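Reviewers of the previous submission asked for a worked example of the structure-prediction workflow described in the proposal, so we include one complete record here. The input consisted solely of the amino acid sequence. No template or homolog information was supplied to the procedure at any stage.
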Amino acid sequence: MEPYYLIFSTLGAAIMAVIVIFIRLKSQLKPVTAKKIVLPPLFMSTGFLMFLYEPTHLHGIQIIESVALGILFSFLLIKTSKFERIDSHIYLKRSKMFVFILIGLLVVRILLRVVLGYSIEVETLAGMFFVMAFSMILPWRIAMLRSYKKIINQSNETKEIPSIHT
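From that input alone, the workflow returned the following structure tokens.
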């Protein structure tokens, strides 16, 4: 039964990843707000409740590995997430690399699942992947919020510049 579980769980993860890619691409057509940047990691943080279930508990080294990998992956997302002002709105610039990075992350996740799935329990692996995903999203969203605020502050400064002809 284990090979079927691996196939179906991998297929399910791939389908969810494709849905996320389409949602991300569609969301780039709408203006960004601070709330839209901050809320996803906040909502995702409820996933830490999974660790109330004892089989998902992680050892220190597993936490360190997951966080390190998540932070490493976050750099790719940070580098490809740039904002632009169009009229009075701020949009996330489309990056051709963004889709490839998300697909690459999916492939890495699937490969890790296949390789580690035989030596680490499914529940522990789920916990590790959650910590990795959260460790990837949190720095990315913090960097996005800083960039967003920088653009907001720049536009406020240009509005406040007094006219020379008074």
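Residues 2-151 form one domain. We consider this example representative of the routine output the project will generate in years two and three.
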